Amino acid sequence: FCCCCCCCCCCCYDCCMRCLGGVPYCSLVATLLCFSGIALFCGCGHQALTETERLIETYFARNLQDYITLAYIIQYFQYVIYGLASFFFLYCIALLAEGFYTTSAAKQTFGEFRSTMCGRCLSSSFIVMTYLLAVLWLLVFAFSALPVYFFYNMDATCSTIDVLTETPASINQLCVDARQYGLLPWNAVPGKACGMTLSNICKTREYQMTYNLYVAAFAGAGITLLALLTYTVSSTYNFAVLRYLGRKGIGPRC
Prior knowledge:
2% strand
């Protein structure tokens, strides 16, 4: 009876180790990073755009026609965010499934080599697509730094105003002009905020929340880029192992 129990335990242990050996840990980590990064980027980015429109409408533009173009652009980007969230959710699941396939085949989890020509073509296609997507997302990552840069300059100007509160003449010369950043047309009124008006804007809850949301969206874009690079590295490694095993004569099955 004891021998039977030992045999059963050994069989269960081998089965568990074989299953755990087929888990694509790199792809799993990349999937978690991708989901968290996209959630940060899309959720915080969407709300930050809404708050930006509110700030521009309240403090930098009095006429609706001055910021109507910006409102349309913000609405367009919000629709793009909806599409990005859906696309990355499906694409990350597909990459995770592909990671399970290639890892199981590379580690010969099931006791034999199970890679087909179609599977290797699919793996190479995912590698190329993920690489191109990482390059494109690098541009998105750089683009998401622009609003952070704008709010950082605005916060630095407000800090300077708080230091120079005893010299009103110098304070009034410190301004943030939204027209210089292309947010408003040059004929927008007032288009800029100066002195204590700018300092009061920086102390509002809307400004602080918008700044923090843009920083979180920027961090989410960076996490997503890291996830795509992790996907690319792990997929390339598994594909190289499959090619190596195929050349050794452990033939693929169609």
